[in-house]
Design a protein that fits this description.
With 789 residues, the protein is of the alpha/beta class.
Length: 789
């Protein structure tokens, strides 16, 4: 007889826990799954193999052949940060049930999905969190153009940008976008324009099904999110394709910021701690009017927010940048101010009236030092309210977040009173006054309920003050005063029953008891029920002692449960005031940035520039703002005079000199001073008259883009072509080294033709140029032009 076939081998993933794991993986394709099991987040199969290499984990294997790696639950954020930095999307599956209560497999759920573009926790921010790192772009094809809805998950800021791949690449760089969401069709193809954008930015991209981009569904998401019947109030027509991108961005945040618990922090999964997107600001289109555009090339070349080469020994990428001039010296009091100032430097103003209005606020604080000190004192100690508000909305605040929120919003009254009497600061006072009543009530409620020094989590309680809640006080009293109650009860029983040998005690096995020596046990009252017999004594219990035992043994659990319920109610109340918190936080950021400009002007003797609509750059004893900060008195001031209408100044300046003569520093200095003045700041100079500018262009140094098949020469020519095609009579152009990478005569011909085109052919407002031949040797340097006419 033929031998019977053996049983097929058992599927190693056919266990209750592994079936949970497989289900979660199917629900979240493209994600690495952190699967909570006890004190570890485990990774299985391909996830374990990939993360072992990416995160440096130890890879092991079960007897059934399943690959395994894991991280301790209390180190989750450390490994998440590294995974996100590497571009991974991570789904986190937590235990939503106490293992002691589980009958069989413990209940679990994916509580959130963390991606490079949806970070909202400070612990996951790269570096010092100075950048806008929590942004994403939802992209949809509109003919040959793209629409991007860019939302900062950590603050709620929501902007919409439009343009081709080149223009959007600049926008995403300026706004710090870290992830691109795009549509793919049923065949998995990506639109050509989106592919070009991804190649230019080299950002992680996440495809979403094409049905996410249906117009009707996207518009309905917008209406539901903001509680409106039409988006026209936000400046969007119902047919505007930008609403599709906005709807996709909302859907993506809803998809990743799921309802759940943070089991490691002990936060209960309650309806009060549901995850919402209440902190999102209404989307707004970024109008090109009124803004001086800095493309990605200029932001990098001028080192506005980060340096090309990091300073030795520094872990902060902003060190040595223009932004660091304000952040490094401690002139900013809040994280909101730091983000606001970054935004002002990346998108300066281009209209004289707007520049002068912001400049007037700076001037008021420069001149009134007492007011500046009082405002600085009121701003100090205000934590990052925008990000705290985001965590409140998403259901992930900590006890310390609530206390910091209460302290921060309580300053609204004092700030309103400080600025309301100064005309140039009155707009800040109006915005503070609009939310003053709401935030004062919120601050009073939080500060009166919560202790001044809160715990980092609610595992053991300790957030709510004594005297706030009678039920909580009773439970805490039992926890603290059980010994005192037992002594009082013992004395009372001795007095009532004349039993001098009576003792009231407690042990973990039998609980609370009344002990009588055997000789006195015969005289035990009828209310005493025998509990235990010992060699020389008898132990009893009474109804009163049983009642106390029931309360005392559950006091800690009841106290913690009560605190959690009160915490959830506080979170819910704070969520109701999220909009007011957002207004206050943004106003604080702008006031802090204004004060930062003033503090820097006073400390470094900067001067107020004269702003004119004429294409002019007239600077006396100007200094490079970054080098002036680093070198102090060692930097030699210099002058520049370009344009100026009737002044007769040249429209284009060509600077020559030997290597290492400071030519590049000089022309960058002129651009940086223009940007500072356009942002509303004072400038490091003896005096300055600076014209308004619609764009700042740069062509600096030698670089390649081999990933796009472009050599150094091709990059240079592409950037130069963009300048020639887009510069206007109000543009400032800085050319540092053109004509490199080719023969001497070709390089000189290119430099000559470009300079001639800028000076005579395009009507461009301002130009600097530095021209070189092959192999990088200098053939002549160019500087600034202000009026090609």
């Amino acid at each position: 007889m033929p031998k019977a076939a053996g049983k097929p081998p058992k599927d190693p993933y056919d266990t209750p826990a592994m079936r949970q794991f497989k289900r979660f993986k199917e629900q979240h394709p493209g994600c690495v799954l952190f699967f909570r099991m006890g004190d570890f987040y485990e990774l299985f199969g391909d996830d374990a193999v990939e993360m072992a290499g990416a995160l440096g984990l130890t890879l092991t294997e079960r007897q059934n052949g399943v690959k395994l790696a894991g991280v301790p639950y209390h180190q989750k954020d450390r490994y998440l940060r590294r995974a996100i930095a590497a571009g991974y999307r991570v789904a986190i599956a937590d235990q939503t049930q106490d293992p002691k209560e589980a009958k069989g497999i413990v209940d679990r759920a994916v509580t959130r999905v963390v991606t490079p573009g949806t970070i909202s926790d400070d612990a996951l921010m790269p570096g010092r969190g100075d950048e806008v790192v929590c942004a994403m772009a939802a992209v949809h094809d509109v003919g040959d153009r793209l629409v991007a809805a860019i939302v900062d998950a950590s603050t709620g800021a929501f902007e919409v940008e439009e343009g081709d791949a080149v223009k959007l690449a600049d926008d995403l760089e300026r706004l710090g976008v870290r992830e691109i969401i795009h549509a793919e069709n049923e065949k998995g193809d990506v639109p050509e324009a989106v592919t070009s954008l991804i190649e230019r930015t080299r950002l992680p991209s996440t495809p979403r099904p094409s049905w996410w981009f249906r117009t009707d569904e996207a518009i309905e998401r917008v209406r539901t999110q903001f509680g409106v019947s039409s988006a026209e109030g936000f400046g969007f027509a119902e047919s505007d394709p930008a609403l599709i991108a906005v709807g996709v961005a909302i859907a993506y945040l809803n998809d990743t910021q799921a309802v759940g618990i943070d089991a490691a922090a002990g936060t209960l999964d309650t309806p009060e701690l549901r995850s919402t997107l209440a902190h999102l600001s209404p989307p707004r289109k970024t109008a090109p009017e009124g803004v001086c555009v800095l493309d990605a090339v200029s932001l990098r070349a001028l080192e506005i927010v980060r340096t090309i080469r990091r300073e030795e020994g520094s872990n902060d990428p902003t060190d040595g940048s223009l932004l660091s001039v304000f952040t490094r010296a401690g002139v900013l009091a809040t994280a909101m101010g730091k983000r606001t100032l970054r935004s002002w430097l990346c998108a300066p103003l281009s209209e004289a009236a707007a520049i002068l209005a912001r400049q007037a606020g700076v001037a008021a604080l420069v001149e009134d030092r007492r007011l500046a000190d009082e405002i600085g004192g009121a701003l100090s100690g205000i934590n990052d309210l925008e990000r705290i508000a985001a965590r409140v909305a998403l259901g992930r605040p900590s006890p310390r977040d609530l206390v910091a929120l209460g302290i921060g919003v309580s300053r609204v009254g004092s700030l309103a009173e400080l600025v309301e009497s100064t005309p140039s600061l009155a707009s800040f006072g109006d915005r503070f006054s609009a939310v003053r009543e709401t935030l004062t009530a919120l601050g009073d409620r939080l500060r009166s309920t919560c202790v001044d020094d809160p715990p980092p989590h609610l595992r053991t309680g300790g957030l709510v003050r004594d005297g706030v809640d009678a039920e909580l006080d009773e439970a805490r009293g039992l926890m603290r005063d059980a010994g005192e109650w037992m002594a009082d009860y013992q004395a009372r029983l001795n007095q009532e029953h004349d039993l001098p040998g009576l003792k009231v005690g407690f042990n973990k096995v039998f609980g609370y008891y009344i002990e009588l020596p055997r000789a006195q046990a015969q005289r035990a009252p009828d209310a005493f029920a025998r509990r235990q017999s010992l060699k020389n004594a008898e132990r009893f219990v009474t109804p009163e002692l049983k009642d106390f035992e029931a309360k005392a043994t559950t006091a800690e659990a009841r106290a913690l449960e009560r605190e959690r319920a009160m915490f959830a109610r506080l979170v819910d109340n704070a969520r109701a005031d999220i909009a007011a918190v957002g207004v206050f936080a943004r106003t604080v950021g702008e006031l802090d940035a204004t004060l930062g400009f003033a503090e820097k002007a006073v400390k470094r003797a900067w001067v107020r520039p004269e702003i004119t609509d004429e294409p002019t750059l007239d600077i006396n004893e100007g200094r490079h703002p970054v080098l002036d900060e680093l070198l102090g008195e060692g930097f030699v001031p210099n002058d520049v005079a370009l344009g100026g209408g009737d002044s007769g100044a040249a429209g284009l300046s060509l600077i020559t000199g030997p290597n290492m003569a400071g030519k590049s520093t000089y022309i960058r200095q002129c651009a940086l001073l223009t940007i500072l003045a356009s942002a509303g700041s004072y400038v490091p100079a003896g005096s300055a008259t600076i014209g308004t500018c619609d764009r700042v262009f740069t062509r600096v140094g030698a670089d390649d883009a081999l990933h796009r098949g472009q050599s150094t020469f091709m990059v240079e020519m592409t950037e130069t072509a963009a300048i020639l095609n887009h510069a206007t009579g109000r543009s400032l152009v800085v050319l540092d080294e053109i004509g490199r990478g080719t023969s001497t005569l070709d390089g000189l011909s290119l430099a000559w033709a470009i300079a001639e085109s800028l000076a005579l052919g395009s009507g461009v407002g301002g130009h600097w140029a530095k021209c070189t031949g092959p192999w990088g040797e200098d053939r002549g340097d160019g500087g600034v032009a202000a009026d090609a006419g």
